[in-house]
Amino acid sequence: SRNLPLPGPDRGNAPRPMTGKTTRPRLALCAVTILLLRNYRATIAVAGALKQAGYRVIAGLEGEPLGVECSRFVDAFWDHPKLEENSTDFLHALDDFLLWNADIVAVLPVTEEFALFLAAHDKLVTQHTTLASPPRRVIEMFTDKLAALSLARDRNVPTLPFARVTDHESLLGAARQVG
């Protein structure tokens, strides 16, 4: 199995601070590694591109097989707590995982959910490694599709026609107008 156990002492449910600089154990670096968070269709494409560029790839699983575990581009897996069920457990587990895996040079969130969450907790990630994601305000802007399209149009960036709709009647009107 390529699942990576969480090394280090069992912390149980005891709370612990997650602020301040943590001393990383000195481990022999075998390869430059990227941790991908969220097992999703796009993860396979991202893993393939990173693997082709020479990186070692670890993918997060959240306890569910969703496809990436079959990919030849992924070297190992980290089965972590589900973010939506308990974000505190996830943060503790991520902190420990990054502390004990010094070869991870970047954490790359693959979905909006992880990008937004990690941008809000970037200090935890960046005390260990690099967060490969834009700042939170940029993520928030571009997860609002209408705002992103409006910004592009206002800056004379070509876009396809678009409209905001609120009900079936406005959908029909927009379809006639937009085409």
Fill in the keyword field for this structure:
disordered N terminus; five-stranded parallel sheet; 7 helices; alpha/beta; 179 residues; 12% strand
Describe what this molecule looks like in 3D.
By secondary structure, this protein is an alpha/beta fold. It is built from seven helices and five strands; from the N terminus they run βαββαβααβααα. It has a five-stranded parallel beta sheet. Helix 1 links the parallel strand 1 (33-37) and strand 2. The model is unreliable at 1-29 (pLDDT under 50).
How much is the radius of gyration in Å?
20 Å
Secondary-structure class: alpha/beta
Write down the overall geometry.
elongated
Q: State mean pLDDT (0 to 100 scale).
A: 80
Q: Going across the major beta sheet, what is the strand order? A: 3-2-1-4-5
Fraction of residues in helix: 25-40%
Biggest pleated sheet? 5 strands, parallel
Q: Whole-Å distance between the termini? A: 52 Å
The fraction of residues assigned to DSSP E strands is: 5-15%
Number of strand elements: 5
* Oligomeric state: single chain
- Please write the string of helix (H) and strand (E) elements: EHEEHEHHEHHH
The helix tally amounts to 7
Low-confidence blocks of residues: 1-29
